[in-house]
Structures are given as structure tokens and as C-alpha cells.
Amino acid sequence: MPNLVCFDLGNVLVRLRPSMRSVVRREDQPQLAALLNQYCLGNISSPDFFAQLGLFFPLNTDPATLRQRFVKNRLLGLYKGASTLLCELHDQAVPVALLSNINEAHWDCLKSLRALNQCHYRLLSFRLRCQKPDDKIFRCLENISGYSGNQIIFFDDLMENIQAARRRGWCAWKVDPDTSIEGIRERLHDLNVL
């Protein structure tokens, strides 16, 4: 059975700007972090999230404008070479999964990208109501895909997620966002996947 190659999205395939936590008052940051976490877990609907998010900003911004800014100010698009990499894996019939802590608004922006739609499995925290590094989300991928242990090659930018994947026996590597695609290509070449 060929290996399953699994990617996180943010800072691995998708370039990100800093979180909006950095633009609110320091005393509001924990409350905003909790709100963002609940949205990422799918525990808050998009309309409710943007209504609550508006309370953190002094300008009277309607929810639609706030949603647009929330997406535009965070997502910078795919890293150069990410689309080509995913297409190469697809063309070589390598099974590919996305395993991401992501919210509905960000996914709504990314889901139309052809390269991401070619991925066989898309496990997203807001749909599953769990997120990395919780073991549950890793088990979900194993159950859905039929792959497990060292059959799964996993790339993420956070060491806590890498460690959680390794506890399940996955071949997991931390990605440097500055050299993301080059590092992934090198590792996949070393593993004879590319």
C-alpha cells in the first residue's frame, strides 16, 4: 500500500499573516483567543462568531465586511510551488490528506483552490469538532483513510502536533514556513515518494 502524505494547511501549504490577536488590546487577547478557538472547533456558527468578533473592534463594522477582513488579513494564498507539489502527488496517484485546525470562513476561501480539491481526504477541525494535537483528530484520519502508523507521512509547522503524530507512529516532520515547499520536497524525495 502506498504511503499517505498528509499536510497541515497554515504555514505549510498556505502562507499566513499574524493572527488578529496581535491587533487587539493586550487585556482582550485571552478572550479573543478563546473565541477564535471555539470558532476553529466549530462550536460557534459563522454569524455568531462575526457578531462576537465585532465587539473587539471600536469601528462599527458590519459582519460581512468583518468576515472579508478576517479572511483577507490572514490568508496570503498557497506558497509558491505548493500547487505544483500537490498536482505532482495527484498525478503519481499518491494519496494526499489535509489535516488542519481551520475555521469555516478560512476554509470557504481556500476550498475552491483546485490543488486542495485534489486531496483525497480533508479533515478540518471545524467540521470534526476537535483539533490537533488532540489524539482524536489523528485517529479520525486513520479511520477514514485506512492508513496508520508509519504508512502516514505528516508535515506540520508546530512541534506539539508533530509529537502527537509521532506518538501514533506516523512519520512526522516539522516544516519551517520560510522554506516550506522546498523542505517538503526534499523529505518526500528522501522517502522515495517523489
From TrEMBL:
Keyword Secreted carried by entry: no
Keywords of the record: Hydrolase
GO MF entries: hydrolase activity
Highest taxon in the source lineage: Bacteria
Coiled coil: none
Presence of keyword Hydrolase: yes
InterPro entries linked: HAD-like_sf (IPR036412), HAD_sf (IPR023214), PGP-like_dom2 (IPR023198)
Protein name: HAD superfamily hydrolase (TIGR01509 family)
